[in-house]
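Annex B. Sample input.
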Amino acid sequence: MSHPTLNVLFLCTHNSARSILAEALLNHLGGTRFKAYSAGSQPGTEPKPLALEVLDSAGISTDGLRSKSWDEFAVEGAPRMDLVVTVCDNAAGESCPYWPGQPATAHWGYADPSDVQGTPEQQREAFRHAMLAIKRRLELLIALPPEKLTRTMLQDSARALAQSR
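Annex B, continued. Sample output.
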């Protein structure tokens, strides 16, 4: 039995690290069940190079990844989201635009790997750690049975995953 593809939007203030990692990971892992996007309230000019580097090192495509405003997803003709997930505490506290279709929402907070000071290797490791933490939660989302991903159950399912580590 075929199930519809679920559109998932990951939000972070600058859309340059965590949300970019989540978008690339879910598009890589989610097959035809999920289509991921990312955006921010104050997008940067481009994704963080270390975010792209750790994705490349893991064999995950970075083609087409760019920092973009969440306004792109709140206009007529934008893909309709089924789930909107904030991945940073700042974005979770901001007033988000109205999302057409009233998607399910959840907050999955992750520490900002861009804040790590230290050697280039320590900074790279922070991005790798963030990528792996996001990957673990996305694997749990992907593993949910189809009935947990129905419109009526999606918000509860996504919010419950916030408790998993």
